[in-house]
Amino acid sequence: MKVTIKDIATICGVSAGTVDRALNNRTGISEKTKKKILEVAKEMNYQPDYTARSLVMGKTMTIGVILFDLHNRSFAQLLNAIELKARQLGYFVNITLSDKKPESEIDCINYLVNGKVDGIILFTVNKGEQFESYLSKFDIPIITIFNYISEKWEYIGIRERQAMKDAIDYIVSQGYQKFIYISPPLAYLGKSNIYTQEERLNGFYEGLKRNRIHSKPVIIKSSEYIKELENLTFSKNEKAAIVCSTDLYALKVMHYLKKQGVSIPEQVGVMGFDDIDILEYVTPRLTTVKYPIEEIGRRAIESIVNKIDHGDFVPTPLLDYEIIKGESI
């Protein structure tokens, strides 16, 4: 038979309320009593009845998370940070993936809402008045990360445009005058919410203008960006910089250049964006923008849990970033 709080209370000679306080680490109980209750619960292999608990508390202690996919290593880092912080605060995480499809994202939201999650952390591909009206009908807190929707929705991110401008400043300071920009998500421009990628592209252009780079850059928006690179020639006389909107693209570009015998950074410099954790195993060390991916995850959980438990989001200013000066530029 399933062990209940009442069973533990009977054995320990205390009330069910005292057992509940011990199991949920609440105040109003001595350390001696708490220790005894926890030991008995462990010996009896007590498992909480989350369904009953949710009925009593009016919440499921679950946070829904909607991401694109897990192909980008930074998303895995983000989820790990979210899950760890949620667990520390007593919440579970329900993960769904939209595959970057607006209609799939709507399905994910409906699934999580119907599953009675207490709040949603959303990396959206949707935007516009109709989408905002749709979100507004749900009586649960929603916090957005990366892709901004509007000032109506709590948002956690960085100054994407400024980060890319600073990256261009650094590249120009290293003597590069010819630029290639790679960002396949730009193919969705005007079709879905690609706020982060738009901001990075704008920062790229503004960085070139600020540094008086007058040569026209090559902009590659295709998922077949390696094939497009095959049409370009590189020489030591005119150092070219390939700026990628994520580290994942940058790593594939570096792999291609090495296969072609193109020296990095002597002939071609490569810049990434994110500073994913596997870069420490890559040679030459990729120059990139350090994105505070794990801090974003932790802040998102802290803010939304505070909203659930106390009624207000934790105000979160745009977070800091850092130019990581590797060996590829």
Automatic annotation (TrEMBL):
Name the CDD domains on file.
HTH_LacI (cd01392), PBP1_LacI_sugar_binding-like (cd06267)
**Where does the chain cross the membrane?**
none
HTH lacI-type domain mapped to chain residues: 3-57
Listed GO molecular functions? DNA-binding transcription factor activity; transcription cis-regulatory region binding
Q: Does the keyword DNA-binding apply?
A: yes
Q: Which UniProt keywords apply?
A: DNA-binding, Transcription, Transcription regulation
Task: Give any Pfam family that matches.
Answer: Peripla_BP_3
Q: What is this protein called?
A: HTH lacI-type domain-containing protein
Organism this protein belongs to:
Halalkalibacter okhensis
